[in-house]
Amino acid sequence: MTGTGTLEMNSISDHLRAEALDYLTPNYGERNLCFVEGEGSWLFTPEGEKYLDMLGGIAVCCLGHCHPEVVQALQEQAKKLFHVSNLFLMEPQIQLAKILVEKTFADQVFFCNSGAEANEAALKLAKKVAQDRGETTRFEVISLIDSFHGRTIATLSSTGQNKLHEGFKPLIPGFSYVAAHDVQEVSERVNEKTCAVIIEPIQGEAGVRPLSAEYLRLIREICDERGVLLIFDEIQSGMGRTGKFFAHEWSGVTPDIVTIAKGLGNGFPIGAVLSSKAIMKHLTPGSHGSTFGGNPLACASALATLQVLFEENYMERVSHLSSFLFEKIKELKKKYPRRIKDIRGMGLMIGIEFDDATEIHKALMNRKIITNCVRGKTIRLLPPYVVTEDEISILIDAIASILDGED
């Protein structure tokens, strides 16, 4: 062992941090915590300290950590079959696709391993549809400023954040960005070269900013009028996060293509693209694929997750908890109007804008509460749906005491 790994350590976590500096790439910055166990809304360090998780692995562990039915499904599948590739049929994959079709607007499903891969596939699909129709000039894609669609080179190109582009230019040509809620700008940009518009119904990385139902409806109309596909990126806002399976359901607008991942496997990597047969038929043999996509283990985890979500009415629970949490935050805003600038979001996807969110985030971590700080301005909350009112109250009480100057 070299470097910091040779230092004498005071704890297991210190030792792991040092080895991380030696052996892991630095792209995630300094990581000072290590968790070895989880249960429900709680995470545990090697020393046994417990942290309240109000981030859920960034909207991934929707049913909380180590949900017993998901664990059981994975264990049972692991005894049968890990992998065979998509050269063959896999029963769990077919079962999962069937449930997704039954619960959504879609007819067919393509499986992959992550949100970035799902968006990559959706972008390829949009271009393929245009090419197959003989519209060879249609290859451009419009997305929104402050959007986030992934870190592959194509999904990065579709992401409207200049700071994320630095170091990777030139990006793939054909992508342009418009301001959210500016319908006129979209109308002016969509032309005979446009094959798709890709939108997050709620912009998570922008600080949890929902797009209005009216805006989504108008974008839908523009796409329909000009023969352009509308893609909704529901990687973060889907899977019941807003109280409906998809966030776009609140608007009554149906996309041509939707992408999901994160909460789909409750922690096991899996992503998916959903659309109609009329669109999916353009994914001809050899045009796209994934070695690991939709493998038996991932599909078993996702199947169990979906069954629990729907059979135990978790969307109703999300709506109830959302009302409770929003009300508590609004009470805080009334008490601390100068500190809390705004409250945004839907369901259990909530952003609280502070005068200095960085300090709030640090103070919450000191109190063993995990949140996420976006752009130094917004505390992003993405708790698991199993979170209780008592656990939410722990968060609210902590924020109140921090704003009272107790830290």
Summed up, the domain count is: 2
Which CATH architecture of the largest domain is right? Answer: 3-Layer(aba) Sandwich
Low-confidence stretches: 1-9
State the CATH superfamily name of the largest domain: Type I PLP-dependent aspartate aminotransferase-like (Major domain)
Counting DSSP H or I runs of 4 or more residues, the number of helices is: 14
What is the share of helical residues? Answer: 25-40%
- Kindly report the CATH topology of the largest domain: Aspartate Aminotransferase, domain 2
Mean pLDDT: 95
Number of strands: 17
Strand content: 15-25%
Class computed from helices, strands and strand pairing: alpha/beta
Distance between the termini: 38 Å
Oligomer kind = single chain
Radius of gyration: 22 Å
List the strand order in the largest sheet.
4-12-11-10-7-5-6
Major β-sheet annotation:
7 strands, mixed
**Shape designation:** globular
- At the first level of CATH, the class of the largest domain is Alpha Beta
Describe the structure.
With 407 residues, the protein is an alpha/beta fold. The protein has 2 domains: 33-54 and 313-403, Aspartate Aminotransferase, domain 1; 68-311, 3-Layer(aba) Sandwich (Aspartate Aminotransferase, domain 2), CATH 3.40.640. Helix content is 38%, strand content 17%. Strands 4-12-11-10-7-5-6 form a 7-stranded mixed β-sheet, with helices on both faces. Strands 1-2-3-15 form a 4-stranded mixed β-sheet. A 4-stranded antiparallel β-sheet has the order 13-14-17-16, covered by helices on one side. Residues 1-9 have low confidence and may be disordered.
